[in-house]
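thought: fold this chain, then report.
action: predict
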Amino acid sequence: MSHVVIIGCGIVGAAIAYELSQVQNIIITVIDKQPPAQASTGAALGVLMGAISHKIKGNAWRMRSSSIQRYETLIPELEAITGRKIPFNRQGILSLCLQKDNKAAWQKLAEIRSSQNWKLEVWDVAKLKSVCPQVNNENIIGAVYSPQDRQLDPTALTLALVDASQRNGVTFKFGVTVNGTSTFANSCNELETTEGKITADWFVIAAGLGSSLLTGQLNQMIDIRPVLGQALQVSLKHPLGDRHFQPVITGDDIHIVPVGNGDYWIGATVEFPNDTQEIPPNEELLKQVLTQAIAFCPELASNYTINRTWSGLRPRPEKRPAPIIGKLPGFNNILLATGHYRNGVLLAPATAHAIREMIIPNAP
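observation:
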């Protein structure tokens, strides 16, 4: 019987735990120095941009498409197991086309998606105004609607994954910090933690920004840098546009995310470290995000109340593509599932499946 230790319990670590918990003859332990769904998971907007992304081939597209498909079954599956409600917006994503955008490129993408059995609709201004009258800006020349893309609540999902995993026998240890490792040849034998030593056959590092410290202890530094994102939640007196059609609206990297009862998440900024490697939240940038959202949907300006603002650090790999999934160089039993940058929620199911295949190839 194999013992797998997962370090990190954000959305990625929790998804891996649940995926592995469905395989027989595996003991699974998840450790994290914080409670679940903290750090970047707790700050994410949960916008799942699959079909509407410009990734059209290779592993980047395969991971996106497989994750979107898995979420269609995963959400009801978790709700049935746990009795928890996971907010899951099935009304798609509407991407606004601005004057600077190449509308022909969107049409080409729609044709490619059709050949891949996915649907994208390219709308002109008249169609956009008839379906989403809240969108009103002279720089908008149309929109692309992706009915199969989704949005969900990352915190609710992570907590449901933890709950379901526990019901399947997974052990979670929160408030536990890794202090060191014991290695022999090309393997890691045990972790030294604040709760004692933990031995295992496999170790999965899914600790986001904390992954660099862990790999550094093994003399294999995986350089992951923080990128700050700020967002805010507003309440409106009534929903924007048609209350029965509330897709995520995105344009110029600004997301307007309906979360029910006339509430919307708006975000997010993209802020890099300064010369001292610190990222103090820039209030002016957050104001600009809100200003741009209002420019897209002027109806926001007259009746919104800001309920809260928040920020989180995204784990961005340095000088290599995101995410990092695979064996840690020099070790045959340490796997990396980290550095997802802005796509941790989107790619969590595909990442979990990839890790499962590395540990138990062709498991039923």
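thought: worth noting. The chain has two domains: 2-85+153-223+318-359, 89-149+226-315.
final: tokens above.
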